[in-house]
Task: inverse folding
């Protein structure tokens, strides 16, 4: 009987600690605003810092609390600001946006230093050391983090060709074919 008491004491202590932790989790539970998760899901989640916050979740929380404008996310552009404004039911502020942007590297000016590739949080820059680099437009968010580190000034931001609306040719009404 002396040997079984220590064997039973360890699980009993573990069970008591488990119940205390479970009670503490329920008693000290902090309710989160579900809008924060919804806004954070819309953001690019690259933690680029262009908004002034260390991460997209912190930026989303500030937007929900009204401490940051809905247009704070530079890579998201005006389209993202409108979606967040609709979600939070607030007016969109700051309407001077050129739309979604992507980086473009000039092949003639790029010396292949690789600084831009290291700075890109989205892995949108491809290339090898001492060779010319390129941008994957579908992965680039236009955060402009790569612009400041390029010693050759070979990177520019341009309007995203995939998301920029283009003028469409007016269509003529379709006539039904008559079969006789």
Result:
């Amino acid at each position: 009987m002396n040997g079984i008491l220590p064997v039973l004491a360890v699980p009993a202590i573990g069970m008591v600690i488990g119940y205390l932790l479970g009670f503490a989790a329920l008693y000290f539970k902090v309710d989160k605003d579900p809008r924060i998760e919804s806004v954070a899901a819309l953001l690019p989640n690259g933690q680029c810092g262009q908004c002034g916050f260390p991460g997209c979740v912190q930026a989303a929380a500030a937007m929900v609390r009204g401490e940051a404008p809905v247009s704070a996310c530079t890579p998201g552009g005006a389209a993202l600001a409108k979606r967040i404004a609709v979600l939070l039911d607030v007016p969109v502020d700051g309407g001077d946006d050129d739309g979604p942007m992507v980086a473009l590297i000039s092949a003639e000016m790029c010396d292949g230093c690789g600084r831009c590739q290291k700075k890109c949080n989205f892995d949108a820059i491809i290339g090898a050391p001492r060779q010319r680099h390129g941008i994957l437009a579908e992965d680039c968010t236009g955060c402009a983090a790569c612009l400041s580190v390029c010693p050759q000034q070979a990177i520019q931001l341009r309007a995203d060709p995939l998301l920029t609306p283009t003028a469409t040719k007016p269509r003529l009404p379709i006539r039904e074919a008559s079969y006789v």
